[in-house]
Amino acid sequence: MPNLVGDVSSAARILPDLNGEKLFISKGKGAYLWDDKGRRYIDTALGFGAVLLGHSNDSVNAAVTEALGDSAAPSWAHVREHGAATELAKHTGDLTKVIFTNSGSEAVHLACRAARAYTGRGKIAKMAAGFDGWFDDVSYGNVTSNEASFQDGKRPSTERTTLIRYNDFADVERLFAEDNDIAAVILEPMLANAGCIMALPGYLKHVQDIAHKHGALVICDEVLMGFRLYAGLAGLREGLSPDIASVGKAIGNGVPVSAIVGKPHILAGFEEGRVLRGGTFSGNPLACAAVTSTLTQLDDNDYESLIQRGNDLRAAIEAIFESHGVIISTSGYGNVFGVWLGMTSPVTYEQAVEKANPAFTTALHLALREAGVLMMPSPYGRIYISFEHNSFVIEEMKVAFEKAAAKLSAEFANA
Ligand SMILES: Cc1ncc(COP(=O)(O)O)c(C=O)c1O
To answer: Which terminus has fewer CB within 10 Å in the chain: N or C?
Structure first.
């Protein structure tokens, strides 16, 4: 009997068998992954969004290898940590103070602790169906949970967490009228883990303004969106002024690292020793080397072309399916988007629930896998593309989508 619980350490990694076989990846380079049988795939999960420069980036590898040679765990302050913090803070506006952690969940956890300590309040408000990590406070109300959909007047809450409906302007006022113990609202620039639901114009700013009016902080959870659309925080480009942001994934190109960045007065409690932070591996040399190398490279990359390539791919996928009698739509941005069956993509989580079709997305995953493309199987999953997904790779992807659409047309034709 295998020892690994459910075959994987994170539930996000569970995949259906294909022709009775499980998938085990042996290596990756650029836009590609190879399995243990030597088959090559174009990857669109990309470390669940972490691998923006492509798999196994040479410069990141060299920087991390050098750090590893100098000791992975020197215990004390070391020569790479300040440099990485300086590099990160160059990109985060007036969120100038940095604490490194190891995973996005840890960063969000620390941000919530900072907000509670600063405000003296107990609750964190998160977007219903948003994913801000798997730690207890914020995994409440995650996508597909019973709590994620709720009626007015029946807001699900615990002692530490309450929920707010994404893109519902009136619900923000109601939240603060109902509850005066909210330390912070966690905002996601896009409800990415519920299938890339875009924020309506003005919505994020509306939440921020009302939160601030009521003395609550704003935490921008940029673990997924940070550094994806440009080398900086998506929320800042939306005109937001968060008090704290959590970042992770793309800042280390797949090397485990995350951080909170915050306004100095908000994070002063940590500096003064009033608020606890810790972690044997927080700010370790490998992570810091990866951050410095990744961010320097992101500065030199052409995001506009990347997003354009992705938008071309989106349009091509829609056209390919339509030519096979299956109408689909996509939501999100060129380099991170969801695929939906039907003419329109959802604007609210309730619409996403109606549109979610696990049979379709599982069948699409399997057909693409057979055609050499790896895509998340969940209806709320995403297709990512990296800087290594050049025009040649995009053309290869179109061929795979053509094969998949032909295979799925009999079952899912809706045109
Ligand atoms: C928006 C957001 N926040 C937090 C997390 C948690 O990050 P991690 O999986 O690194 O713990 C994720 C992970 O997907 C995320 O997308």
So the answer is: N
